[in-house]
Amino acid sequence: MASRFFGAIVEQARKAGLMSDDHFTVDGTLIEAWASLKSFKRKDQEPGDTPPPDDPGNPSVDFHGEKRSNETHESRTDPESRLARKGKGKEAKLSYSQDALMENRNGLLVDIQIAPATGTAERDTAIKMIDEYLPGVARITLAGDKGYDTRGFVENCRERNITPHVAKNEGLRRSSAIDGRTTRHPGYPISQVIRKRVEEIFGWTKTVGNFRKTRFKGLERTQLASYLVGAAYNLLRMGKLLTAAAA
Q1: Is residue 192 part of a domain?
Q2: Which of 13, 76, 159, 176 has the fewest Cβ atoms surrounding its Cβ within 10 A?
Q3: CB-based burial of residue 214 (10 Å sphere; 0-12 exposed, 13-18 middle, 19+ buried)?
Q4: Model pTM?
């Protein structure tokens, strides 16, 4: 129901001429799960393997010296959430990956998906959204940050007749998956400027939309909430655009 509602709003924006058919952006962020780190326990641990808590309502948990990972541990509150961090030096939290597909004309959402917070979630979900919402033979451009500059993602884009306008991720030990065949065109630097508008979407959903942390357990319910928040963003944005056009 929520997906059809969101899709109907996207279609309304297309019919109103508010959405680009040629230029798009993908990006992802982390949404904190409705589960605490205290619930993140070994998968092979049975309830009777640990001594009774000192306070059943709010037990003390000592993680010192314990190596925890998604391979060996899972949340007893929300097993579909994953332990993830936003970057080096950041605190790891139980999270979901929220991924957005934005059109570049007016910064409207084409799709917004929730996925398990794996190391490849953003790239995998980007390809999924492209296949579901941008099928066809017409060539399009797809902008993204340095996280999308991998051989696999770039090849997947080109197989789908998509020009990957991703930021180059170069260093002493690696080379970029894109070269002058892409970066020499005037559209590439334009995509690099416009793609940053997707951060406005995430900023709005996390503050005004109150979706920095999900209030639901599980992937399916969190996805439903994501569609509703994304629909609200599009409706407000569309209202401003149509009002400006009528003035």
Answers
A1: yes
A2: 159
A3: buried
A4: 0.88
